[in-house]
Amino acid sequence: MEGYLKKWTNLFSRWQDRYFILNEDVLLYCDSQGGQIKGQVHLKVAALILVPEDPLRIIINTGTTEIHLRANNINEKIDWINALKSAQDKCLSRQSEIKFEQKIQELLTDVWQTGAIFDETLSMLIPKLEKNSQIKEMADRLESIGKNLKTKITLCAQIVEEEKQKLSNLENGTVYESFIHQNSAQSVIREDLLNHQHHHPQHGQPQLLSITEIAQHIQNQPIKYNNLINNPAFQKIKFTNSIKRDRLPYKKDPNEKINVWYLCKELIGKDLGRFSVPIILNEPLSMLQRLAEQMEYSDSLEEADKIIGDSALRMCYIMGFGVSPYSANIGRTKKPFNPILGETYEIQTHNCRFISEQVSHHPPISAGYAESKTFQFWAHTDVQTKFNGLCFQVNPVGLFNVILKSSNDHYQFNRCTTKVQNILWGQQYLDHMGQMKFVNLTTGDNGVLELIEKSGKSESEMRGYVKDKNGNEKYKLKGFWNDRLIAYDSQREIIVWKRHQLPQDSDWYYNFTEFAMQLNHLTIDMIKELPCTDCRLRPDQLAFENGWIDLASSEKHRLEEKQRARRKAMAAANQVHVPMFFEEMIDPKTNLKWYKYKGNYFQQQWKQIGQELLDLF
């Protein structure tokens, strides 16, 4: 059965016509007949709800959200209800009478809410460690919350295992079995395709090599060799030397919802004291690579360096560079991977080279440095976060620095607040808000760029100004952080930054920009030359990029355990980790912590030594 129904979208757009197609036990919908599929509902795990006060309404509860539909008349509603119930009856005829999914969903909801309280209490406890009078009370509360959360997870896992045993004896496919086999089936198909390509390359395509074939060239690097040659993620992939790519190896449905079964499966057997974010809430890039994304618009720094005699206009281009990374966040509500202490990343673009290193574990801090013929850049990511179960808020700490070599101007600026709304339910969206303050420490020029919080009348808007050291306004600024920034005075308007176009089908690849698409690209030559600490060699991140979710999750857990064991061994030996490429400093002007690049990464002589220092993966 198929046809048009009205679907509730939001408070502003309200009811909109959507074309629905009932295909066995799956209800698909799109904007119009013949259009692209926008979403799907598996009736096997959904409940149909009727609303007596609204005789035309049909509510479908999927377990994580509710979809509200309206028919055009009573007869049409009856036809749809009968068809939906018939589809449900067929797929549920052999299912247990116990409504285990509802139990699991309720428990998971409680888990996430309790986890939010756990994080909130922990964030409150750490700053108060020196206030002895409060430590006992806070510690007791933390312990109580932890025990409660562990009890909920244990009960949830027990229910999953009990139902698994009951369902495993059924002849027909079940929800649990279809989930268990989904990833493995996709992996087999993808691996067969890759093997077929490897043995039968098409005309004009580069030859693909396995990690076994590449490993013979890195036998003089024992840590890297052992980590890669025996790893299941690397064993499943064929590598090439293609310099650039226009897509990721795995397409992820942009309308995909959080899988309740997967959350349960990933939590089974995990120690609550080591509670980590499920991998399906990640994107296949690390925080080190996210810091490198600041370099996507480094051309703005080159343009600023060319300007002679107008320091205020140079500041405008710096402000465009400063706000530019927010445009790459559109549609990207997933969390980057947390780097392991000592993990590194390097990239060389057409105009600069960049290095980043994870310099601290608690709190997690990534330090980065870039240089070119025209500029220097350094920064670190130190953030304060808050999660209340519905919204995740990030407040950056510290300053970003830029030096233009022609004028010797030294700029500092801060980042604004970022919020991800509707983390678990509803339509996720990301917003940036607050003031970014810029100062030229050389000339005294200063500027403010205010990003306005999303409302009914405004979205992605920003406004600002640039003043000289005497407080005289030289330029005003206007624009949208998802489009462009314009500097203007009484005589002219100048576009000081403009967003790049997204690649085709980017919504199927985590909404990555063309620049972001290259950040985790791993070639044969990179495997040979990169140090063993480079995050492109992380097996969990690589597996996740290829869509092997179960493998990625198990590798992520293995690396976390390996990191804990290393940290424990260092503590027992009274050792402290010292960053290899950055040194912690205190800025005498601001009294803020920053990380000075030692200048030793791109010197070739360190690499053979450095590759043998840390076994992270």
| Percent in strands | 25-35%
Shape: globular
H/I helix tally: 16
| Rg from alpha-carbon coordinates | 27 Å
Major β-sheet profile: 7 strands, antiparallel
- Judged by helices, strands and strand pairing, the structural class is alpha+beta
InterPro entries: Oxysterol-bd, Oxysterol-bd_CS, PH_domain
Protein name: PH domain-containing protein
GO cellular component, one term: cytosol
Organism: Paramecium pentaurelia
Q: What can you tell me about this protein's structure?
A:
- The protein has 617 residues and is α+β, with helices and mostly antiparallel strands.
- It is built from 16 helices and 25 strands.
- A hairpin with a 4-residue loop joins strand 15 and strand 16 (409-413).
- The radius of gyration is 27 Å and the shape is globular.
Descriptive tags:
617 residues; alpha+beta; seven-stranded antiparallel beta sheet; six-stranded antiparallel β-barrel; 16 helices; 34% helix; globular; Oxysterol-bd; PH_domain; sterol binding
Quick structural gist:
With 617 residues, this protein is α+β, with helices and mostly antiparallel strands. It contains 16 helices and 25 strands.
Secondary structure blueprint with pairings:
Blueprint: E1 2-8, E2 15-23, E3 26-30, E4 37-42, E5 47-50, E6 57-61, E7 66-70, H1 74-92, H2 100-125, H3 132-167, H4 175-199, H5 211-215, H6 222-229, H7 232-235, H8 260-267, E8 282-286, H9 287-292, H10 299-306, H11 311-323, E9 335-337, E10 344-348, E11 353-360, E12 365-371, E13 375-387, E14 391-397, E15 400-404, E16 409-413, E17 417-421, E18 429-440, E19 446-451, E20 461-467, E21 473-480, E22 484-488, E23 493-498, H12 514-519, H13 524-529, H14 539-545, H15 549-572, E24 582-586, E25 593-597, H16 605-610
Parallel strand pairs: 8-9
Antiparallel strand pairs: 1-2, 1-7, 2-3, 3-4, 5-6, 6-7, 10-11, 11-12, 12-13, 13-14, 13-15, 14-17, 15-16, 16-18, 17-18, 18-19, 19-20, 20-21, 21-22, 22-23, 24-25
Helix pairs in contact: 2-3, 3-8, 10-11, 14-15
Organism: Paramecium pentaurelia
Family: Belongs to the OSBP family.
GO molecular function, one term: sterol binding
